[in-house]
Amino acid sequence: MSEAPLPASRAASLPLIASELALDFTNSVADRGGPQHAEYLHSGSDIILWAHHAQLLSDDDRDGALALVGADEALGSLLLAEAHALRETIYEIGAALARRETPREEDRAALTAFHARCLGKARLSASNDSFAWTWEPRTALIEAVLGPIALSALSMLTQQDLARVKRCEGEHCGWLIFDTTKNRRRRWCEMEVCGNRAKIRAFRARKLEAT
Asked: Which among 59, 121, 142, 199 is least buried, having the fewest CB atoms inside 10 angstroms?
């Protein structure tokens, strides 16, 4: 029996609403372990399309990277595996922070090691009035795509108010967000989606109680 075809990729259209690049990357999965689990990154090409969507790759770099994985199946598979592993490491760290727990040492060590590996392929390039780590996708594709994401996660851990890391309260969601609101009362990934669904459920529950 042939396998069912994969759903159309949403890699280039997923909402980027977490306010932190690393957390946006973790949000390429919905309802982890739940009945409505959805994986949105199914191939190396999907990883590249997401990176372009998140403005990590230029149009030319996206096209060149897609050509690379199209010509080298092993490279595409490795990119996908590395991306999934990094994504789950960052998610475990972020989810622990959202629970107000200390992230596990093994997750912190894995993130640090991956970042160090990426830096081995990076250059410190002038950027406006400062400098930034940059990568060349043609010679270091995996590091060019995933290096900025690992750097984002580490910068968040070392430079941000971690009490602002939260998990969307929406049913069957679980996306991570960085709450930038002044009152720190953000509850949803998107008010128009999870927030409105919660309001509808609450309204229906009140109607049932009233009958």
From this structure: 59
Identify the CA nearest to 136 among candidates 194, 32, 193, 58.
58
Q: Where are the alpha helices (DSSP H) in 16-72?
A: 21-26, 44-53, 59-71
Round the CA-based radius of gyration of the chain to a whole number and report it.
19
CB 29 within 8 Å of CB 38: yes
In the chain, DSSP finds a helix count (H) and a strand count (E) of 7, 6
Q: What's the pLDDT tens digit per position in 72-114?
A: 999 999 999 999 999 999 999 999 999 999 999 999 999 999 9
Domains located in the chain, CATH noted: 21-210 (1.10.3300.10)
What's the pLDDT tens digit per position in 4-19? Answer: 555 567 899 999 999 9
Tell me how crowded residue 87 is: count the other CB atoms within 10 A of its CB. 20
SS3 42: coil
